[in-house]
Amino acid sequence: MRTTTAAFACACAALFAITILAGTAGATVRFGANDDTGKYSADGGAVFFSQMAAAGLKQNVITVRWKPSEPLTIPDLAVLDVAVPAAVAAGIEVVFAVYPYPPSELEVGGVSHLAFASWLDALARSYPQVTTYIVGNEPNLNTFWRPQGGGGGRIFSAAQFGRFLAAGYDALKAVSPEITVLGVGSSPRGDRAPGAAGKSSPVHFLAALGAWYRASLRPLPIMDGFSFHPYPNPSNFTVPFTFAYGWPNASVQELHRIKQALWDAFDGTAQPTTLNGLELYLDEVGWQVDTSTLPGYTDAENVQVTSEVNQAAIYADLVRYVVCDPDVAQLSFFGYYDERSRLGWQAALRRNDGSERASNAAVAAAIAETRGECQGLMRTWRPLAEPAGAAVVFKPSSGLRAGLRNLSFVPTAAEDVTVTAGIVPAGTSAGEIVGLLGKAGSAIANRRGELTVGGMLRGRKRYVLAVALAATLNPDRVSVFKGRAFTVAAGFRPGQPCQPSRAAEYEADGFRCTNLATRAASRRPNYRLAVVRR
């Protein structure tokens, strides 16, 4: 907790805590592609995997979906039997991305996480060469998990998915403790309070997943690494590599927000965070490119796309960027070959016909240049103890007199916060202030709105307006701000009857006791207060 005393409490709190370290190398980052092309190739993926390896890509994420209505079936078993050995022979590590699908079957209810675990057990025993699994694929989106929420901030999908993730973790570790289980496969964007068919922001989904995990009292982790998909806006790929969403979503430039959300959700539990061993796996990322002049594609483009030249520069920057984050273990481009339909995905390093884009050479060169290790300044991160970017502007409070009074202030932060405030004696210690404050409202991230708090002020006392901002997703992260101390006058009014014997008291408050008139009947003096200063 921090106390700031100022009429304007400046935004001295950092939006995130990152330290730049020179000459510090982290673990080697591995690169790959999330693509099923090799799985379905007529040659079992031999050419596809050899091309990947030549570009420095050493991992292929392959999708294997579990259909609840066919709980014992491993789909594409015949092609997997060919593709997995072919990938291994080419020096490519196969990663299985596994999750329940379609969401319509989840939505009706009654789908067993234990049946999913039994299916995973069979899959893992069928392919002992595969030692990394991503359990989940964007369960914070209605495209892959329904219902999402019930409005009002309730996120149902996180707790429901948590059971599948935990069961999957246990099943895979039972097959082999050496299997690496990655969790979630989170989309980078969503809403604060999704409806049943909505989308949950990654930080709100993690908060709900953490709440479920804590309530479950589970003594074991649910994941060895966190899988995240830091795409840019899905409808506009003209944005540069430096593109940022802002809270509560996260681009590749905002991985600090994901690390903070993981820490908020799981710190102090059996589930590690990035502070004690959890690594980030960026399993899907890509910038779609223009294919309008190319043969071999179908349908009309439905999003704004960038050029192949821009994509190549972005991908090279992406390689150099992630190797300088010690918490990133792996990055996979979404697609090594394009999809044929423009309604699908064209962000690959090779076109639909297999010909190279400029990005293939750019990525290969960047991987060879870095060798997967930071060549410059390493970025490290530590969790915030306060809301990101918390600040308060206090409105003037001079000239106050005794009685019930209202004071105004403007809170702001770079994340949503709950606001409590109160008028307290000026000498109140920082440790006591929070307990004296009452609910004043809330502040939406990066917005400013004036709030008012009232209090009964007694004369001849010094007060201060105190405001506490607590992170909505972790109320333990609190910032306390204090305005300038002020003295309250006794509350005398001009023209009020007065007693000459109290002259000193009146004068202290800026008044003079004066005989303004003499009553004709009694000839008694009529003493009233007159203002001498303010």
List keywords for this structure.
Immunoglobulin-like, six-stranded mixed sheet, 534 residues, 25% helix, eight-stranded parallel β-barrel, disordered N terminus, 24 strands, TIM Barrel, 3 domains, alpha/beta
Structure, explained:
The chain has helices at 37-40, 46-54, 77-89, 103-107, 113-126, 156-175, 202-216, 255-266, 308-322, 358-370, 430-436, 503-508, and strands spanning 2-5, 8-9, 17-22, 30-34, 59-66, 93-100, 132-135, 149-151, 154-155, 180-186, 225-228, 279-285, 328-334, 377-382, 391-394, 403-412, 417-425, 438-443, 451-457, 461-471, 474-482, 486-488, 511-518, 525-531. Residues 1-14 have low confidence and may be disordered. The relative contact order is 0.12. It contains 12 helices and 24 strands. With 534 residues, it is of the alpha/beta class. Strand 20 and strand 21 form a beta hairpin. The strands form 6 sheets. An 8-stranded parallel barrel has the order 4-5-6-7-10-11-12-13. The protein has 3 domains: 33-382, Glycosidases (TIM Barrel, Alpha-Beta Barrel); 391-488, Immunoglobulin-like; 500-531, no CATH class. It is elongated, with a radius of gyration of 31 Å.
